[in-house]
Amino acid sequence: MSVTAGPWTTLEGWRADLTRVLADEAAAVAAAAAAAFVPGRCDLCGASVGFEPGAAQDMREGLACRRCGCNARQRAAARVLLDNLAAPSRATVAVTEQASRLFLALRRRIGRLRGSEYLGSWRLRLRLTAWLWRHGVAGFARHDDVTALSMRDGSIDGMLSLDVLEHVPDYRAALREFARVLAPGGVLVLTVPFHHAQATNVRIAEPDGSGSLASPSITAIR
């Protein structure tokens, strides 16, 4: 299995490769779906037990490691982070998730790992805390808001945020917060959904004043 890789620095560059990329991905998905499992080594947990094809319809969300459970997107982002930290075993890293397989896997690779969730209620916090306890993580699930992080200026070496900013009405405020808490030369790795036929961002929710999100008429933001 192989899928055409970038990097692409412009939308035009991506569109020039679009047909080939989609064809490669379709072939890879079909090959994975036909297999009981996909052989390979997970470079996040180090296991050579292969990957589950899963029910995902694309290579981004599928291919979960049979040991640590991290999918292709999580493993790729973690690899970029680890490759760009000078000394992962001594680094301080924040990740915008905590009750997740990715957080568990990164704890074995990062010296000081700080995870958090956006927790709207104590009931949710207790449920996620129970999940962490079942997986050997002491302490409570931590609440944090990416638009107003509780960390000090320049206090971390790396920030990892996967598919979070599309849920944040003011994503620019989140990016400013990421920049604020990163030390000089720090590493930011993030992913967001990418719709290849759409050249603008679209805001689909706004705060309603009660701590929840409402869905107004869709407004494009450039």
Automatic annotation (TrEMBL):
Keywords: Methyltransferase, Transferase. It comes from Marilutibacter chinensis. Signal peptide: none annotated. Residues 142-190 form the Methyltransferase type domain. This is Methyltransferase domain-containing protein. GO terms for molecular function: methyltransferase activity. GO terms for biological process: methylation. CDD domains: AdoMet_MTases.
